[in-house]
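Training component of the fellowship. As part of building independent skills, the fellow (R.M.) carried out the full modelling exercise for a liganded target. The chosen ligand was zinc ion. The inputs are recorded below so that the supervisory panel can assess the work.
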Amino acid sequence: MTNFPLDLIRFLRKATRVVALTGAGVSQESGLRTFRDAQSGLWAQFRPEDLATPQAFARDPKLVWDWYAYRRRAAQTAHPNAGHFALAEMEKKISQFTLVTQNVDGLHHAAGSKNILELHGNILSVRCSQCGAFADDWNEDRDEVPHCKKCNGLLRPNVVWFEESLPREQLDEAVQATRACQIFFSIGTSGAVQPAASLAHAAKAEGAVVVEVNAEATPLTYKADFSFSGKSGEILPELVKAVWEDQG
Ligand code: BV8
Ligand code: ZN
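Fellow's submitted model of the complex:
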């Protein structure tokens, strides 16, 4: 059982503008591998950062397509965990709550969160690498990467690869909410990937209270006002209970 400092509990009870940035650690208890976790089986020989790039797709579209098809199936069979549900609960208690996620697994939507900014796209959706048209169905033919029905271009996952720009609107909205927030949560992320990792520091610079929930220390830990080391699926429900259910 985590004990939460009284001033954090009071801050949260009064807060009207909160941002939560999440990373792969939030989905770890749903059985999805984090980005830094070693890969297994067929994919053990590859590092994610070597597959999640336009160059990798250009070099071997089938390998990259299959990696995403494997991860899409894992995301489709995964269920939100108590950490996802706690964030959906928090959103109901705070008038302006923005969930900024680096995750592409769609589990925050599945848990009922509404105001979500997906900075790195969503693995469940697929678009054409040539004309950009979204595909609502495609045959998972084992032998070749599916093609666009409109222009016959190769289909690709609708995620942001390394060295690709983040979706302008989502990033602008995330920066705006970060600049205006009173409390900024950084949850389940190693803070290794930019520009998402810069948001916590921008919040701190604007005077927000920064709260980290992570299984291990990160470059943010020493700067955070509050840092809780452990599993988000355990800590977040306890925090929601301490702030909104145990109200004396
Ligand atoms: C960009 C989608 C502008 C795909 C992802 C050189 C040239 C160009 C760019 C760069 C460059 N050098 C650096 C950059 C910037 C680059 C970058 O940051 N590189 C890093 C590796 C140094 N960024 C980009 O390229 C971005 N675009 O900058 O555009 C531009 C344009 C053109 C030219 C130049 C610049 C695009 C970044 C987006 C990449 N796409 N995902 C896919 O999923 O396949 S990023 C990927 O990493 C995932 O989204 C993941 O979420 C994200 C971050 O990782 P984390 O979520 O933090 O996951 P991680 O495993 O690291 O950590 C998990 C943490 O959870 C751990 O700390 C663990 O302890 C903790 N944990 C585990 N279990 C639990 C837990 N915590 C709590 N509870 C638990 N149960
Ligand atoms: Zn097309």
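The panel noted the following from the submitted structure. The CA atoms of residues 133 and 198 lie 31 Å apart. The pocket of zinc ion (ligand 2) is lined by residues 128, 130-131, 133, 148, 150-151, 153 (CB under 6 Å).
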